[in-house]
């Protein structure tokens, strides 16, 4: 997705201003009324829009009637740092994409960090492509991120086979991202069922599935929620509604009241939350997870967000709580930017995995003849053209061992 | 049926030709009838011949010992194809705690009885119905397999597999590759009734195996008989790759064999030569195996009406009949070895001609056997 930082900054300041104008009030685009109490529903409500749960107001103070979720300094600091790291990575990789160094990039913060903090570290996560924050939260390093985005030989996510942001890590319980939208939704129902079936994880772990409000138009959305609500499986569905799917605004995506309106259709506990309020997201996902485990059934959380770059509600609270100060903030920004730049430069210079990896991992067990023969066909072509044809020679040099793994076989 | 006023005694002296109109007594079975299957010599209807099925590997024997010509000791039981499929799943569920069976209507036994009694035996948590959504069934199965569980999913008719095409081709086939080997869905097996039944029309008769042949990462298997179905299904369930197992529905009841009751597997990716020959290779899979067998009989001893159309010189042709069994990957070695000897290949499949499995096989065979071919590769297919 292409982002235009200067445009969204200008618009978001307007929206933020309007949000500040009334203490509780309504969300900017959808006009959903803001409420301070977390209230899950699972049947069709009376008239009016589904309200949005929020904890902090535009200045970072608690809104009337809201309660702070349980959070200590260590957790708060970790959330803050990750929420700073994400846009730092965001900005650098976004610019790198504009320069053509990598092919694809985008990001979102409070929803992702708030939910990551509420999940258990081994809850199985099935994302769409904006959930790098969950991986960062779980300890996936900046070097691992860069390796995947550059597709170099250190790419543990996929050996350089996929486009950028298609992360995956069994160690971090983060299922490998794929480009087709919404395919993870019914898969998450199956993952949840496996967790229910496994004696060492039943009642302890859930599957957490992220997707955008655009992807939720796919048939797989209906199939997934139908299965997870009916079989049932302990799968927590987190819909990120940021009002756009590439260029398509929500008004052209659906006529109903967002994604939350669909939850009651499946009879599952549902709530709408302000996705830009990291503490509200934390509280909602904690409660959603608890219900998911208790019922062994799907729960749906719709996190509303809107493009804004500069202002994050949690910052003020963190600062006001006396846990932070302006110097520490500057120091953090500088340090993170330096870390990211260092990782970026390093990743840019590392070669791709061996060329032969083009043909491995297609099948498990014995390799079928057709794959073997295709490898041999490439090897034959390399022998003939690899040295003498300059474009091929240049391309081969980008791979570890310059194709020798094939030529020597 | 006609009634008469004659007494029972007088009836016994008069020979009234008896006409049994089966539709008056009971409707044809949903899976259909294929009479020539019942008399097929390809089916192994004795315990002895069943236990000598080539490639049969019992689970409790390792392959290290010498192959024994004496079959001794093992039990077989008369089973039709749906009973053999059921037997395979029962064994899989018994041996593998993570195994589950799911799909539309499987709990009560399945529309073709393939899951009869399984829910009662293994419980609702392991054998259960899903809502009516093939893309959901496939996705759910992928999720289970991602966690290392054994997922045996049923798509009620192969004609309805298309909503699951995205999940199968874009996801299941590619998960191992795209994750650099970190994740895989080898535990996934999709079973689905396939091919024509006579009365099925457009939507209960299809053979969609060709659509999946291009999805590297998947395997596609089609058994011709009960012994084959049980062994290949167990082989498919245990194969470390997602497998689509297509069961010719017309054979569910009409193909009957003595099936070994123990846990055994047959190899994937390997064709089987059913009738050796030297003049022409006849390659097929699934239901047409029996049509091919019948055709060979008609060739060697044609009925009076066909005699003028079949030159006498051809009637002694020795045709080599091969059951491909696995469509992906397919056994190119067995096929080309045969064609290099015979010089002629006819491929038979129910699916339509254009871009069917026969097209891929033809291209590969002509490339490898070009100088040995005495005629172009011929495809005899559905229209």
Brief rundown of the structure:
The complex is a heterodimer of chains A (409) and B (383). Chain A has 409 residues and is an alpha/beta fold.
Order of strands, main sheet of chain B, comes to: 4-3-5-6-8-7-14
Query: Tally of extended strands of chain B?
Result: 16
The helix fraction of chain B, in percent, is 25-40%
Mean pLDDT of chain A: 89
Terminal-residue CA separation of chain B: 37 Å
Number of strands of chain A: 9
Order of helices and strands of chain A: HEEHHEHHHEHEEEEHEHHHHH
Query: Count of DSSP helices of chain B?
Result: 15
Terminus-to-terminus distance of chain A: 41 Å
Helix content of chain A: 40-55%
Largest binding interface between chains = A-B, 52 and 48 residues
Coarse structural class of chain B: alpha/beta
Shape of chain B: globular
Largest sheet data of chain A = 5 strands, parallel
Given the C-alpha coordinates, what overall shape of chain A results? Answer: globular
> How large is the share of residues in beta strands of chain A?
5-15%
Count of helix runs of chain A: 13
The biggest sheet of chain B amounts to:
7 strands, mixed
If you average the pLDDT of chain B, what whole number results?
92
Query: From the alpha-carbon coordinates, what is the Rg of chain B to the nearest angstrom?
Result: 22 Å
Task: Map the helices and strands.
The complex is a heterodimer of chains A (409) and B (383).
Chain A lengths: L4 H17 L12 E2 L16 E2 L19 H26 L11 H9 L5 E3 L5 H6 L4 H9 L33 H14 L9 E6 L6 H12 L4 E7 L2 E2 L2 E2 L19 E6 L3 H18 L3 E6 L8 H8 L5 H24 L19 H17 L4 H7 L7 H4 L2
Parallel strand pairs in A: 1-2, 3-4, 4-5, 5-9, 8-9
Antiparallel strand pairs in A: 6-7
Helix pairs in contact in A: 2-3, 2-10, 3-8, 5-10, 6-7
Chain B lengths: L7 H6 L8 H4 L9 H4 L8 H5 L5 E2 L17 E5 H15 L4 E4 L14 H5 L4 E3 L4 H13 L4 E4 L10 H8 L2 H4 L9 E7 L14 H4 L6 E3 L4 H13 L4 E6 L2 H4 L1 E5 L3 E2 L6 E4 L4 E5 L3 H13 L18 E5 L2 E3 L3 H11 L2 E8 L4 H13 L8 E5 L1
Parallel strand pairs in B: 3-4, 3-5, 5-6, 6-8, 7-8, 12-13, 12-15, 15-16
Antiparallel strand pairs in B: 1-10, 2-9, 7-14, 11-13
């Amino acid at each position: 997705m292409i982002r235009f930082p200067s445009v969204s900054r200008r618009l978001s300041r307007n929206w933020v201003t309007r949000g500040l104008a009334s203490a509780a009030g309504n969300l900017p685009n959808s006009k959903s009324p803001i409420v301070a109490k977390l209230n899950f529903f699972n049947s069709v409500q009376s008239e009016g829009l589904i309200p949005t749960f929020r904890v902090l107001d535009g200045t970072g103070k608690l809104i009337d009637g809201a309660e702070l979720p349980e959070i200590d300094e260590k957790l708060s600091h970790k959330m803050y740092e990750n929420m700073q790291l994400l846009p730092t990575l965001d900005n650098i990789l976004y610019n790198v994409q504009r320069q053509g160094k990598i092919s694809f990039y985008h990001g979102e913060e409070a929803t992702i960090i708030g939910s990551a903090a509420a999940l258990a570290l081994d809850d199985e996560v099935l994302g769409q492509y904006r959930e790098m924050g969950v991986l960062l939260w779980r300890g996936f390093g900046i070097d691992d991120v860069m390796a995947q985005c550059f597709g170099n030989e250190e790419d543990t996510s996929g050996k350089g086979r996929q486009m950028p942001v298609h992360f995956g890590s069994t160690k971090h319980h983060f299922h490998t991202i794929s480009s087709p939208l919404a395919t993870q939704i019914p898969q998450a129902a199956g993952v949840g069922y496996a967790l229910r079936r496994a004696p060492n994880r039943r009642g302890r772990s859930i599957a957490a599935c992220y997707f955008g409000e655009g992807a939720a138009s796919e048939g797989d959305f209906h199939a997934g929620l139908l299965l997870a609500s009916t079989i049932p499986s302990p799968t927590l569905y987190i819909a990120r509604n940021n009002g756009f799917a590439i260029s398509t605004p929500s008004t052209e995506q659906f006529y109903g009241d967002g994604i939350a309106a669909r939850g009651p259709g499946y009879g599952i506990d549902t709530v709408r939350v302000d996705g830009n309020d990291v503490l509200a997201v934390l509280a909602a996902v904690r409660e959603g997870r608890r219900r998911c485990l208790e019922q062994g059934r799907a729960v749906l959380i719709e996190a509303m967000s809107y493009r804004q770059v500069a202002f994050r509600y949690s910052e003020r609270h963190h600062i006001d709580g006396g846990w932070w100060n302006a110097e520490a903030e500057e120091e953090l920004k500088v340090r993170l930017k330096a870390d990211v730049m260092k990782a970026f430069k390093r990743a840019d210079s590392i070669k791709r995995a061996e060329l032969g990896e083009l043909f491995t991992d297609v099948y498990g067990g014995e390799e079928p003849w057709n794959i073997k023969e295709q490898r041999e066909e490439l090897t034959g072509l390399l022998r003939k053209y690899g040295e003498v044809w300059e474009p091929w020679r240049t391309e081969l040099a980008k791979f570890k061992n310059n194709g020798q793994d094939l030529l020597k076989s | 049926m006609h009634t008469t006023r004659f007494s029972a005694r007088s009836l016994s002296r008069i020979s009234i030709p008896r006409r049994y109109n089966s539709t008056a007594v009971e409707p044809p079975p949903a899976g259909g009838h294929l009479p020539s299957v019942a008399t097929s010599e390809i089916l192994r209807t004795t315990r002895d011949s069943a236990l000598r099925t080539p490639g049969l590997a019992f689970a409790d024997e390792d392959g290290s010992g010498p192959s024994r010509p004496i079959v001794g000791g093992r039990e077989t039981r008369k089973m039709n194809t749906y009973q053999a499929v059921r037997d395979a799943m029962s064994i899989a569920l018994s041996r593998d705690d993570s195994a589950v069976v799911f799909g539309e209507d499987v709990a009560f036994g399945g529309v073709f009885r393939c899951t009869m009694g399984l829910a009662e035996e293994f419980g609702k948590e392991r054998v259960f119905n899903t809502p009516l959504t093939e893309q959901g069934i496939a996705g759910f199965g992928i999720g289970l397999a991602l966690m290392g569980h054994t997922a045996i999913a049923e798509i009620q008719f192969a004609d309805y597999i298309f909503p699951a095409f995205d999940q199968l081709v874009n996801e299941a086939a590619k998960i191992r590759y795209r994750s650099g080997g970190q994740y895989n869905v080898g535990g996934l097996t999709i079973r689905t009734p396939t091919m024509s039944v006579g009365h099925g029309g457009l939507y209960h008769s299809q053979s969609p195996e060709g659509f999946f042949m291009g999805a590297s990462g998947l395997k596609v298997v089609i058994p011709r008989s009960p012994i084959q179905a049980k062994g290949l299904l167990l082989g498919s369930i245990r194969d470390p790759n997602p497998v689509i197992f297509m069961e010719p529905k017309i054979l569910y009841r009409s193909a009957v064999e003595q099936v070994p009751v123990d846990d055994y597997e047959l190899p994937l990716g390997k064709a089987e030569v059913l009738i050796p020959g030297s003049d022409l290779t006849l390659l097929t899979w699934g239901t047409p195996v029996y049509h091919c067998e019948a055709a060979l009989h008609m060739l060697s001893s044609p009925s009076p009406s066909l005699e003028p159309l079949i030159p006498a010189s051809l009637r002694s042709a020795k045709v080599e009949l091969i059951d491909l069994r696995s469509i992906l990957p397919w056994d190119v070695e067995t096929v080309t070895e045969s064609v290099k000897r015979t010089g002629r290949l006819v491929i038979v499949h129910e699916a339509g001609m254009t871009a069917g499995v026969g097209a891929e096989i033809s291209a590969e065979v002509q490339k490898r056997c070009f100088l040995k071919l005495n005629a172009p590769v011929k495809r005899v297919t559905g229209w």
